[in-house]
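Quick one, C-alpha cells below. Sequence please?
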C-alpha cells in the first residue's frame, strides 16, 4: 500500500439571513449633565421610532453603557455617546425603511453587518464539499495508476483567515422593475475551505 496526498477545495455562496445594525447616538451640550439628559432623551426617541415605524421592540436592542466625555475640539462642551445594536431578519423592504429613517436622524451613525444564522452548518457543508473534491481527484489519479482508494491516513485542515461578503447590489434588470425586492439583491457570503488528505491506495 502507498499514500497519495491530495488537496481538496470548495467555495459555496449563501444568501445572508441576518442584518446586524449597529447604531451610535450622540448629543453635544455645554454641560455634562445636559449632554447626558439630552442623549438619553434621543435614545428613548430612537427606540420609540423603531418600535412605531418598524415594529422593532426596544428589548430587541443590545444596549451598551452611556458615556459622556469632554469635547476637546470645541471648548466647554461635552459629548454623550450611546451604542446599541439589533439583529433583524434579512428583509430588504424593512432594511430600506430603516436606512431611510436613520438618514433623517441627526447625530446618529449606523453601520450594517451581514450574518448567517446557521453559519456552523453552512461551514460543514463546505468542508464536506472540499473532502469530496479531494476524493474525486484522488480516485482519478489512483485509477490512472491502476489502483483504488482503501482509506485515509491523515487529514490536515486549513482555516481561511476571512470569508467574503457580497454586498447589496442592483440586479441587471433592476432599472426596468418597480419593486424594491426586484431592484436589489440580498447580500451573500462566500465560505471557502481547504483540506489536505493523505489517501491510502492499493
Amino acid at each position: 500500500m502507498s499514500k497519495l496526498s491530495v488537496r481538496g477545495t470548495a467555495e459555496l455562496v449563501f444568501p445572508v439571513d441576518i442584518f446586524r445594525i449597529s447604531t451610535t447616538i450622540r448629543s453635544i451640550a455645554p454641560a455634562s449633565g445636559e449632554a447626558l439628559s439630552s442623549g438619553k432623551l434621543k435614545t428613548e426617541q430612537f427606540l420609540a421610532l423603531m418600535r412605531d415605524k418598524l415594529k422593532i421592540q426596544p428589548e430587541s436592542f443590545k444596549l451598551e453603557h452611556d458615556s459622556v466625555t469632554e469635547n476637546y475640539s470645541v471648548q466647554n462642551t461635552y459629548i454623550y455617546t450611546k451604542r446599541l445594536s439589533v439583529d433583524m431578519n434579512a428583509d430588504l423592504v424593512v432594511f430600506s425603511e430603516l436606512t431611510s429613517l436613520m438618514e433623517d436622524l441627526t447625530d446618529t451613525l449606523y453601520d450594517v453587518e451581514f450574518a448567517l444564522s446557521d453559519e456552523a452548518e453552512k461551514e460543514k457543508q463546505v468542508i464536506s464539499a472540499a473532502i469530496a473534491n479531494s476524493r474525486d481527484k484522488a480516485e482519478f489519479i489512483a485509477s490512472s495508476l491502476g489502483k483504488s482508494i482503501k482509506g485515509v491516513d491523515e487529514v490536515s485542515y486549513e482555516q481561511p483567515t476571512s470569508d467574503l461578503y457580497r454586498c447589496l447590489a442592483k440586479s441587471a434588470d433592476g432599472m426596468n422593475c418597480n419593486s424594491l425586492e426586484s431592484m436589489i439583491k440580498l447580500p451573500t457570503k462566500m465560505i471557502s475551505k481547504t483540506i489536505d488528505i493523505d489517501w491510502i491506495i492499493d
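Confidence is low (pLDDT under 50) at residues 168-183. The CA atoms of residues 177 and 183 lie 6 Å apart.
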